[in-house]
Amino acid sequence: MRTKVFFVLAALLIGSAVYALTYTGPYGELCQTLGGKWASVPSSCVTRLCYWTGSCGYWANPASRCNLLKPDDPISEVYFQLGDPDEVTGNRYIWNERKGSGIEAVIENERLSTLICPT
Predict the structure, then answer these.
(1) Which of 11, 45, 83, 96 is such that its CA lies 20 to 30 A from the CA of 114?
(2) Mean pLDDT for each consecutive 10-residue tract of the chain (119 residues)?
(3) C-beta separation of 80 from 68 below 8 A
C-alpha cells in the first residue's frame, strides 16, 4: 500500500514539475509587456540587458525577429532580437538557423550595418 501511495505522489510531483516548466501563463505575458522575450525552455524572461550580462542565449528561430531590426541599431539590440551569434569573424556575425536558413549581419562601430535574413 505504501509503495502505491509513493508512486502516485511521485507521478503527481513529476506531472506538476513538467507543467510548471512549460506553463508561461502570466509570466510570459508579463515579460512581453515589459519589453522582454519569454524563453520557455529555461522559463525565463530575456531583457535588453542580455547583451551586457551575456545572457541572450540561442533561439530556435531567430529569423522570426529580423523584421524588428533596422540599420544603425546598436549591437545590444541585435543580440536581444537574434540571440547570441554562432560565429563571429571580424565584423561579420552569423546565426545558424535551427529551423531554416541562416542569418548574417555586419556590425561596424557597435552598430548594425547590414542584415541578411532568409525570406
Answers:
(1) 45
(2) 54 43 61 87 87 91 92 98 95 83 93 92
(3) no
